[in-house]
Amino acid sequence: MFTSWKKMTAHAALLAGMLAPWMVTASAAATHSVPLLAQAATPGAPAAAADPAPLALPPGTSPEMQAAAAGGPAVPPAPPIIHMALLLPSRSGAFGAAADAVRTGFLTAYSRQKENIQLAIVETGDSAADMQRAYDEASAKYDILVGPLSRSAVTAVAQSGRVSKPTVALAQPDMNGEADLPLPPQMLAVGLSIDEEARQVANWVEKEKAPGKIFAISTGTAWQKRAARSFQLRARQLGMQVDTLELSTPANALSAPGLAQLARRVEQEKPALIFVALDAAQTVQLRNAVGNDMPLYGTSQINPYTLKRDNPNDKLPELDGVRLIDIPWQLQPDNVAVARYPRPTVNDNERPNADLARLYALGIDAYRVAYGIAQKQSGFDIDGVTGRLNVNMVSGGTTFFQRQETQAVYQDGWPVPLADQY
User: Fold this and answer.
1) pLDDT at 274 over 60
2) Are 163 and 144 in contact (CB under 8 A)?
């Protein structure tokens, strides 16, 4: 009898030793977390037989505890549940359409890869202050936060000093003078950036341009001025000479006198190329003024259409030969990473919106980045729908995120990826 009791005590000690780490994990989790393992009931009194009966365990005991009780090898424990929050502005607010596109893309990716992820969607107000309050509340409840979506809200959170959980921001913060705003150690900014596109075009140009200065053309629109400035700064770092020129836009079109003056300067100074921080319609106007022989390079904003290319009226043969950068989602339907995700549905009488399509793609890649962080990958690469992504988030250390978009050229009215990518 005494011998049997000692054997039972040994079994109980073995169970307690296996259970202890999981109990620590459960107690350290947020109050909304679910226990990862149920505590086993205390074994009953030892049997009167000379040899102990098998240890009786309650229904629902985990496989690893059952294996340990039977004396067999331990089953690997299930990974812990990661609680993730997607913070987006309300659908009824000013950012409603953008938030809806990101949400749809995010949930599309989540539906295909959601092992050990429990997702919550938190709607916030539009202002930076509303977003900051929502972010602070979510930080106390969730393990990983995805958001904010607007530049002003990302800037506010980045400067708050209250980023204590891994955070995947959906926009770039506002620039601090001529330099990007430094981010807290646990924050990544994965938003699509016209500034970064302009810098990538500068890197591209440096590898294939002819000798001579470069003109960078914009209007007074904020994003265009930022793109022209970002291109100029990066090009100068690479040893190139860049003059920025700003054209006026009466009646939402480039001014005829301004274009005529630009054409004269092009004829007199013969720049090696022109970087156009313009949209597609404006680029057509500029090309008509300077001629087809002048090399033009631009950003994704000179690709105004989605990959639904069944409308011949959407073709822009006036831009044939113009080079640009855009995301794979907009250029490469046969790309393996792109083809695995469905296109967002639109009504038959509705033209797809290219900018909302890009935000849908951003939602897909934002989830994939957050999922990689949830798997405790400090550094990893993703062949994403928004480009080739390089991610590094070391706990307590420096974060790094880089997106390389796809280089393309207009052919027969459509932008087509180049065979050789720099």
Assistant:
1) yes
2) no
